[in-house]
């Protein structure tokens, strides 16, 4: 029986506009200035430089990160993110799955707003590669992700471990970018995910 892991951001929920809104609120509260005029600007920077550098471009420092993280958790345990309905349906239909994300409390709260049954959660406080090896333990590990870095991490796990990286082309990275990164399968939209998982 394969073990299915879903990335939270970009696969099950669309967080980018909400993340930018939170960033703009932080900039206003701390007298900073956001350089991002649109969600597309924000996403482009996020892909190029990563989450911490996005905030540094607004004038925040490493010392500010604990406060930013607290604001993130507070914001997204009070405000619903737009879900990808077909991806959530696939999660529900498959049964025992794992969700990988930055904070378990945020994941649980967002799932509860969509009336999604509890699932196992892999908090990113544990290195992904270590967690993947532990979870798979010889079974086929299928990881649905919208991030090229996750594809690389998953490939690093596959020393004698059957793994499959499924690129979610509706999230942060495009289907072409995920394919170029080495994803075994790429899907252009989340409405293709339920049928694909049924083939496993």
Structure description:
It is a single chain. With 200 residues, this protein is of the alpha/beta class. Helix content is 47%, strand content 14%. A six-stranded parallel β-sheet has the order 3-2-1-4-5-6, with helices on one face. Helix 7 packs across helix 8.
Arithmetic mean of pLDDT: 87
Rg result: 17 Å
Describe the global form: globular
CATH class of the largest domain: Alpha Beta
Tally of distinct domains: 2
- H/E element sequence: EHHHHHEHEHEHEHEH
- Proportion of beta-strand residues: 5-15%
**What fold name stands as the CATH topology of the largest domain?**
Rossmann fold
Query: Assembly type of the shown chains?
Result: single chain
| Category by helix and strand content | alpha/beta
Major beta sheet, strand line-up: 3-2-1-4-5-6
Head-to-tail CA distance between termini: 9 Å
Q: Judging by the overall fold, what is the CATH architecture of the largest domain? A: 3-Layer(aba) Sandwich
> How many beta strands in the DSSP annotation?
6
Low-confidence stretches: none
CATH homologous superfamily (4th level) name of the largest domain: HAD superfamily/HAD-like
- Helix % is 40-55%
Number of helices: 10
**Main β sheet profile:** 6 strands, parallel
List the defining traits of the structure above:
Rossmann fold; alpha/beta; globular; 10 helices; 2 domains; 200 residues; six-stranded parallel beta sheet
């Amino acid at each position: 029986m394969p073990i299915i892991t879903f990335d939270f951001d970009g696969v099950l929920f669309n967080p980018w506009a909400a993340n930018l809104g939170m960033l703009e609120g932080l900039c206003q509260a701390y007298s900073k200035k956001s350089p991002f005029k649109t969600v597309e600007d924000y996403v482009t920077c996020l892909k190029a430089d990563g989450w911490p550098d996005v905030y540094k471009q607004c004038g925040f420092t490493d010392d500010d990160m604990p406060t930013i993280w607290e604001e993130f958790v507070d914001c997204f345990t009070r405000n619903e993110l737009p879900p990808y309905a077909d991806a959530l349906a696939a999660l529900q239909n498959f049964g025992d799955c794992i969700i990988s994300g930055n904070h378990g409390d945020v994941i649980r709260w967002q799932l509860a707003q969509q009336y999604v049954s509890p699932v196992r959660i892999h908090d990113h406080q544990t290195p992904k590669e270590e967690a993947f090896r532990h979870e798979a333990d010889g079974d086929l590990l299928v990881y649905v992700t919208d991030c090229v870095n996750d594809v690389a991490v998953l490939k690093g796990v596959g020393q004698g471990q059957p793994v499959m990286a499924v690129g979610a082309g509706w999230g942060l990275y495009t289907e072409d970018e995920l394919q170029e990164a080495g994803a075994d399968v790429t899907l252009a939209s989340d409405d293709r995910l339920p049928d694909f998982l049924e083939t496993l």
